[in-house]
Structures are given as structure tokens and as C-alpha cells.
Amino acid sequence: MHEIKNQMGSTPLKYNPFIEPLQVPIGGLFEKGMGKVQYIRVENRRKVYEYDNHLGNVLTTVSDRRKLVCSNQSFEADVINTYDYSPFGAPLPGRSLGALKCSDYTSLLVTEVFNDMFNVSSPPFIVLAPVVLPTTFGWYKLNTLTRAIISNNRLNVTKQGANTNNTRGVAKQFTVLAGKNYTLKFKHYASAPLSNVLFYYRIVDNLTSTVIVPQTSLVANNTMNPYSYLFTPSANATYRIEFYMVGLVNNFSQFRIDDVQIYFEEEIVNQVCVPTGDDYRFGANQMEKDNEVSGQGNSYTAEYWQYDSRLGRRWNLDPKPNYAISPYACFGNNPISTIDHKGDTLTAANITSREDLLSIIKPKNQKYLKFDQVGRASLDFTGVKQSKVDRLLRNDEGLSVVKDIVTSTKKFLYTATDQLLLVHNVTGFTTFGMLPLDNTGIYNMSNGGFDSGNLSNNPEYLPKGYDGHVVISKEGEWYGGEGRKSRAGIIFHELVESYERTALNNNYLDVLDAMGNVMKVGAHNAAIDRQRNWWGYDPDPGQGNFYHTHQSYTWMQLFWFNMKKAVPTAQ
To answer: What per-residue confidence (pLDDT) applies to 547?
Structure first.
């Protein structure tokens, strides 16, 4: 058993005990601690572990294989697919990756040291070697007896001055790397009326004058002849290549060089991975993809709809229309905080909310509270005798409260959050806005009316289709006269109060007669009375000062807090 923590709580990952703890290094698309194993499916005869976030979006799929990392002798999970989505579920380009087929390809990389073809429009003369090499392709004369000029796209070398028995030629410096197999190629033309004139080339170390490529004879037959030579330096160095003629040179003795190049070749092995296609059927919102309709991840289907994830619009009319929004809208136009796996009902996507509901029930009885895929709560007493069920309800007031709510004809919603998306539909128009929790840390909205007169609990802000909505700060704490109060106690009180107001049409405050006697206990005091019978201890039920644990707030939160001057009391 391996436990993976996520921002919505924790869920156990049942994994092969002979495999190392699961690690999914995907660099941003999915990191350990940012998702949960929602389903284990069998796809194409292989077991696939599906990692979803709180919206049900499939982030990553891994197989039950393990891969050995040779560098540190550890194991990694075999990642099959990774996905990232735009709000309505369309895949983000470059951040979604399907299964890959990888192959190694060998290519030849050619690195040129230089390649001189002497293509210039204005023929320059080659000068003697200065301290800094000349810019004319880097070539220079060996001595003052040499005349060299680039003409007709070739480097031409003849004598300078009187006919003498001397060496005349040109040279060029270049750098080399140790261990590389270099190739020298060039073309050479030579003309020598006198037979005692010989033509050569060689390569020497420019610093030590050590001969690298020995003096080699070149043919003088009035033809441009190609030559090549291979050499391998033993160390990084600067070499010099020389072309020259030796003998009694006259006016008709000359040579030309062209296409002089030095290079080395290396074999480079590249791994090329090609996507084999999106072979996993499920994507955003745990729905099935219709890739054949509009491309990968651009169309989804469920029991009651088919919709385009790029537009956020369904193809058919909503079977349970919300008259405040378009019947073609998806997720109530709010795909960040709502889910709709079947395409007919919105439910808050918040696992913390479910854990809060479990917290008011005795731990041994929490097994009877079940949640479906979209978060709807129900009690399952299958196989339990009715007499035991009655006893459980008598001895566990939290279980009894949940039973009253889930069996009511009214529809309730509980949310743990610090900013609430409100849809305000009044006087014929609809407005949307993110509303931070005020200084009570609580909203308790009901179609049974206001609670303590706080206008933020206006029933017009109820999510469409719900009769009661309890919202409690996800990060806050409450303190009473005896110290920090139980979060579960706050949740218990607000749920009972919501039930009293919504299902039983009870007023928030007690109903008094003319003499001030209580004729009917209001929802607030009824919740207090019931809380005194709850198994969780609260010495001062229904009261408490709220403190938000975050030290930094948005400008909207600060504005809202400053507008609320009433005593912070958990109602």
C-alpha cells in the first residue's frame, strides 16, 4: 500500500507491493502530491492506473510495470500518457503527451574547420604574415619572394622579383581538437617549364614547428588535380598548412589552389519519439473522448450530452435546464469549480467538503456514508438490520443529521472553500462574481430566507437546482470561551440549521408571543439543542470568533473584511 497526498486530502494507492514506491517525474504536468488514483482500468489487455485531479481530469496514466533507472539503481513508474487541459477540457498544445514509439537514428555530423573556395568579386593580394592574420581567408605569403593573388576564384602563386633558387608559397593557420579524425581536401594546379622546380604541401604545428603531415609532392601537369589526406591530432593545438614550390623559379613557374577544406565527421545517435496517437479513452471530467469527431480531446461524450471542449458548448439542449444560463452551456460556465460527469447536474468538486461531512460522524460509522462519482452523498445500510440502524442513529447524532439531509425532499449543497463563485439572478439579469468569505467564515443560504440578516446569505445567490447551501472556510479556525472550537462542531451546527430552515421551513430566530415566551424554537437554537446531544463535545455550541489562518489577502478580501463591522459570530 502506498499513500499519495494531494491538495484535496489523501487516497490510498493500491499498487504491486513488489514494486518500489511510485514516482512519476513528469516535470510540471503531474508531480507527486498533485493528484490521486481514481480508477484502475484494463485497456488493451494492460492494467492502467489513472491519476485524476479534483475535477476528475485525467492527468496521467501509468502501467503496472516498473522501469529501472541505471544511474542510481532505482525504479520509476512506466508513464503511458500525460495530459493538461484548458478549462473546458481541450488539450493544451505541448503539454499533453500520448504514448510514444522511440527509435535510435544514427546521423553523420560534419564539422568544418574551414572551406575556402576563394569566391571574391575584387581580387585582393595576399600579404606577408602580420601579427594578426589577414582577413583574406586567413592566407599569407611565406616570404617577400612570393607573389600571391586571388584571381578567377583561385589562389594564384608566382615569383616576386628576380629568378632565384628559393622557396615561394603561402600558408594558413587553423585550430584542431585532440582525437578527431580530420580530412584535408584541396585542388592543385602546377606549371613548371623548368624540371628542377618541385611543388609540395605539408602541415606543421604552428608553435613547435613539428611536422604533422610530411612534405608531400604535387604533380605539375597543367591540370587541376584533387588531393586528400587524413590526420588525427594527439592534442588540441594550432596547425599551419603550407603550399610552396622549390627550385630555380622563373616567370612561367606558378601554382594555383582551390576548394581547400579541412573537416572532421562524427556519428551522432539521436532518439526520435513519435506519438502513436491518443490511445486512452478518458480525459477531462472523467468523460470519454470522441477523437474521431474533432481531433484529440476536442469532443467529449457522456450519458446526457456531447460537447465541444474548445467552445465549452454542448451539441444538445440541457435535459435539466437552468433558465439563468444558456441551455447549451457546459458546467454552468464554471468548469474550474464544478463537475458534470453525466451532463445533467452540477456538483461542487471539492473532496475536502466530503471529508468535512465524514467528520461529524463517529469514525466507526463513517463507512455507512457513501459518495458517488460526482460527490452526491447517501447512506448505505445494506445488510444491517433495521434495529441496529435505529440504534446507530440514536447513538450518533451526526449520522442522524446526515440521514435527515440525504433523505429530505430538498436538495442541499455543502462546500469548503475560501472564495465562493456567486451567480446573482435578480430583477431579470444575472451577474457573476468571486466572493471571499466574510469575517464569520460561513455562509448559510436557504430558500427558507435569511439567517441572521446578513445580506450575503441572500437566497438569490443559491446555486440553481439547490434549496440550501452551506459554505465554510477551508482554512479558518473558530475560538470560543474555552479555546479553539472543533471544526466538526461548526459544520454540524450549520448543517442542522440549514436543514431546519430549508426542509422544515423553520425561522432562523425563535418565534415569540406577545409576552416574550418561545412559541417555536428557531433554526439557530434548534441546532444548538441538537448539538448538545452530539457525540462531539462543544461547551458553547453556536458561538465562536473566526480567524483566517492566511496572513495575506486579496484586495477584494480586504475590502470585504473592512465592510463587515459586526461581531464575528458563527451563526
So the answer is: 61
User: What is d(CA 357, CA 543) in angstroms, rounded to the nearest whole number?
Assistant: 20
User: Could you give the residue ranges of the DSSP H alpha helices within 334-462?
Assistant: 351-359, 386-395, 397-406
Please give the domain boundaries of the chain with CATH numbers for all domains: 1-82 (no CATH), 112-269 (2.60.120.260), 350-563 (no CATH)
For 457-500, what is each residue's pLDDT tens digit?
Answer: 455 667 777 888 888 887 777 777 666 778 888 889 989 998 99
Residue with more model confidence, 549 or 276: 276
Q: What is the 3-state secondary structure (H, E, C) of 171-213?
A: EEEEEECCCCCEEEEEEEEEECCCCCCEEEEEEEECCCCCEEE
Q: How far is CA 308 from the centre of its chain?
A: 22
Residue 418 scores a pLDDT above 80: no
User: Using H for helix, E for strand and C for coil, what is the string for 485-536?
Assistant: CCHHHHHHHHHHHHHHHHCCCCCCCCEECCCCCEEECCHHHHHHHHHHCCCC
Instruction: List Cβ neighbours of 174 (8 Å cut-off, separation of 6 or more).
Output: 113, 114, 138, 238, 239, 240, 241, 262
d(CA 5, CA 11): 7
What is the per-residue pLDDT for 546? Answer: 67
Q: Residue 461 corresponds to which cell in the numbers above?
A: 445567490
Cα separations in angstroms, 410 against 199, 341, 376, 502: 106, 22, 13, 7
CB 198 within 8 A of CB 174: no
Provide the H-helix boundaries in 76-165.
none
Residue 30 gets which letter from DSSP? S
Give the per-residue pLDDT at 429.
40
pTM of the predicted structure, to 2 decimals: 0.40
Res 423: pLDDT: 52
Which segments of 350-461 does DSSP mark as H helices, in order? 351-359, 386-395, 397-406
In sequence order, the 6+-apart residues with CB closer than 8 A to the CB of 310 are 86, 88, 90, 294, 298
Task: Tell me the CA distances in angstroms from 258 to 167, 186, 562, one per residue in order.
Answer: 20, 6, 84
Going by pLDDT thresholds of 50, 70 and 90, the confidence category of residue 12 is very low
Cβ atoms 501, 508 nearer than 8 A: yes
Q: What are the grid coordinates assigned to 199, written together?
A: 611543388
